[in-house]
Amino acid sequence: MERTPVDPALRAAVERRTLLRGGLSLGAATLLSGCDISDSDAVQSALHAISRWNDRVQALLFSDARLAREYRPDEVAEAFRYNAYYPKQDVVHLDAGSYRLGLSGLIGDKQPWTVDRLMALPRTLQRTRHVCVEGWSYVGQWSGVRLGDFLRLVGADTHAKYVGFQCADGYYEGIDMATALHPQTIMAMTTVGGVLPVEFGFPLKIRIPTKLGFKNPKWVTAMYVTNQQPRGFWSDRGYNWFSGI
């Protein structure tokens, strides 16, 4: 059977993240099975079951009363680290004038939002640590409207289970409603020195300091509320869906 070619940039990104999928459990499974686990449906099924169990445990431990640490202005990194599954020169450029944030699902007012309307909303500022699954982190500064406040403003059903996001570069992600309503989860539009730089998500990224970095989607163009668990770009490739820290 002829195989579909894999994007080299995506392959490299997946390979960088193999520790999250496997780690000690993967190595132990290899030793116990004595075979190539990539061909073992039983082992893959067991690993997926463990991942789902991890998601449930993390969700039970999550609380809006537990806040990520916030830092002083002098502790903010002078330069952010670019990170995506493709090189910086391929970053999508969105035009502020024509940008629209689309809304769908269990939301009362689905009118699209322009950059100007979003920027006019009351903003909160945070200095929190971005933690990447690849093992690095930095303290950054972001500001924007709290996602929970925005959801209530547009008449979203906050008793629904999930909020999902679509991004201009093809990325997609989803979070549970408790995380969406957490006071530190914001729709970030500015950072140190002004609006978000293009390579870090202009004009809108979702900043979630209680999650690993890949749960913080950039270049967000659509948001929806649903009772069906949204897919995630990296969870579709074997990583934990909840991915709290």
Describe the protein in words.
The protein has 245 residues and is of the alpha+beta class. The protein has one domain (1-245): Sulfite Oxidase, Chain A, domain 2 (Alpha-Beta Complex). 25% of the residues lie in helices and 21% in strands. It has seven helices and nine strands, in the order H-H-H-H-E-H-E-E-H-E-E-H-E-E-E-E. The chain has helices spanning 8-16, 18-21, 23-33, 41-61, 115-119, 147-153, 177-181, and strands spanning 102-105, 124-131, 137-146, 162-167, 172-176, 186-191, 194-195, 205-207, 220-226.
Determine the mean pLDDT.
84
Which spans have pLDDT < 50 for at least 5 consecutive residues? 1-6, 18-37
Quaternary structure state of the chains depicted: single chain
CATH architectural group? Alpha-Beta Complex
Total strands: 9
Instruction: Choose one word for the global shape.
Output: globular
Q: How many structural domains in the coordinates?
A: 1
CATH top level label: Alpha Beta
Q: In CATH terms, what is the fold-level topology?
A: Sulfite Oxidase, Chain A, domain 2
Percentage of residues in strands:
15-25%
Output the radius of gyration: 19 Å
How would you classify the helix and strand content by structural class? alpha+beta
